[in-house]
Amino acid sequence: QVQLVESGGGLVQAGGSLRLSCAVSGRTSSNYVMGWFRQAPEKEREFVASINWRSGMTYYADSVKGRFTISRDSAKNTVYLQMNMLKPEDTAVYYCAAYRTVWSGRLSARLDDFDSWGQGTQVTVSS
């Protein structure tokens, strides 16, 4: 498992942008899939985006496709979630997550596949 620390959350008006960061420590030479999930009050935690660290392959939830971009910086051991055109329904606690994989051409959107989690960062979008 790796250790994950999120940052970058805050309050923004609808239509605005935020960039979340996830600092990764304890990463070995193994490949990882990194993901972002979110949880709104009284709702289930849901998938937002994931990236295969080695290949850069990405996958997005339909609700954020075209607005959010996930990326990674190997030199900084950091994963980012650039969020544009934010909507009030994007309000949630955003969590960074990871799991180790041998595959470069696959990634998951399933919450149960991820075994490392950060503490979360609050994103609030006002209308």
Can you describe what's shown?
The structure is a single chain. By secondary structure, the chain is mainly beta. The protein has strands at residues 3-7, 10-13, 18-25, 31-39, 46-52, 58-60, 68-73, 78-83, 92-101, 116-117, 121-126. Strands 2, 4, 5, 6, 9, 10 and 11 form a seven-stranded mixed sheet that branches. A four-stranded antiparallel sheet has the order 1-3-8-7, with no helix packed on it. A hairpin with a 6-residue loop joins strand 4 and strand 5 (46-52).
Secondary structure: number of strands: 11
What do the pLDDT scores average to? 96
Largest sheet: 7 strands, mixed
- Put simply, the count of helices is 0
Query: How far apart are the first and last residues' alpha carbons, in Å?
Result: 38 Å
The fraction of residues in strands falls at: over 45%
- Low-confidence stretches at least 5 residues in length (pLDDT < 50)? none
Helix amount, in percent? under 10%
Spatial extent as radius of gyration: 14 Å
Succession of helices and strands: EEEEEEEEEEE
* Overall body shape: globular
Q: Which structural category do the helix and sheet elements fall into? A: mainly beta
State the gist of this model.
By secondary structure, the chain is mainly beta.
Provide tags for this entry.
mainly beta; seven-stranded mixed sheet; four-stranded antiparallel sheet; 11 strands
